[in-house]
Amino acid sequence: MDFSIYRATMEDIELLVRHRLSMWRDIHPEFGDPVPGTEERTRMWIKEKLSACRLIGFIAKTRDGQVAGSGCIWLREQPPLPMTSHLETPYLMSMFTEEAFRRRGVAKLIAETAVVWCRSRGYERINLDASESGKLLYEKLGFKAGYSMRLLL
Ligand SMILES: CC(C)(COP(=O)(O)OP(=O)(O)OC[C@H]1O[C@@H](n2cnc3c(N)ncnc32)[C@H](O)[C@@H]1OP(=O)(O)O)[C@@H](O)C(=O)NCCC(=O)NCCS
């Protein structure tokens, strides 16, 4: 099946919210229900970032217009670094493919499109946090584990 990628607009906020919450449910079912207000906070955050062009959404659709999946680049602010003049690094996030369309190359197409978008704008790298099912996908695209560490409090 052929898929095409569309750039998300303000009309797509509800879709991006649904995909983001579904992504978390799929990755961490053990978390149970999100803390109250999560959906509204997610909606407000996406709305703000999308309208400021700090969030770039890529939506995959079938030829007949069915939504198959989506993913976003968040231009994440950072302090000045010696190896770049950019004050942000693209962060690939909210990758989600609808169950019915999994393992058909949808996420790969979205991630590849995001990579092209970032490269064409002169960014030197893309960061992300990978779920277990996402790891192989990203490795195949050339992503490598980096220096990040975390302490759970
Ligand atoms: C992870 C996810 C986005 C993959 O979407 P997808 O459209 O099915 O992925 P693709 O078909 O583009 O897969 C490309 C490659 O990634 C790897 N891959 C994808 N899903 C995988 C899985 N469940 N387990 C292991 N490898 C997987 C495979 O190498 C695959 O190539 P192949 O099918 O030729 O073997 C999808 O399973 C999903 O939405 N999962 C729940 C949310 C999530 O984990 N999001 C990622 C957050 S980092």
CATH top level assignment:
Alpha Beta
Largest sheet: 5 strands, mixed
> What is the terminal-to-terminal distance?
45 Å
Unreliable spans: none
In short:
Helix content is 35%, strand content 24%.
Explain what you see.
By secondary structure, this protein is an alpha+beta fold. The chain has one domain: Gcn5-related N-acetyltransferase (GNAT) (Aminopeptidase), CATH 3.40.630.30. About 35% of the residues lie in helices and about 25% in strands. It contains four helices and five strands; from the N terminus they run E-H-H-E-E-E-H-E-H. It has helices at about 15-25, 40-50, 105-120, 130-140, and strands at about 5, 55-60, 65-75, 90-95, 125-130. Strands 1-2-3-4-5 form a five-stranded mixed beta sheet, sandwiched between helices. The longest helix is centred in the N-terminal third of the chain and has 15 residues, at about 15-25. The model has no long low-confidence stretch (mean pLDDT about 95).
Considering the chains and any ligands shown, give keywords for the structure.
alpha+beta, Aminopeptidase, 153 residues, 5-stranded mixed β-sheet, binds coenzyme A, 5 strands
Which helices and strands, and how do they pair?
Blueprint (H helix, E strand, L loop, with lengths): L2 E5 L5 H15 L10 H14 L3 E8 L4 E11 L10 E10 L8 H15 L6 E2 L3 H9 L13
Parallel strand pairs: 4-5
Antiparallel strand pairs: 1-2, 2-3, 3-4
Helix pairs in contact: 1-2
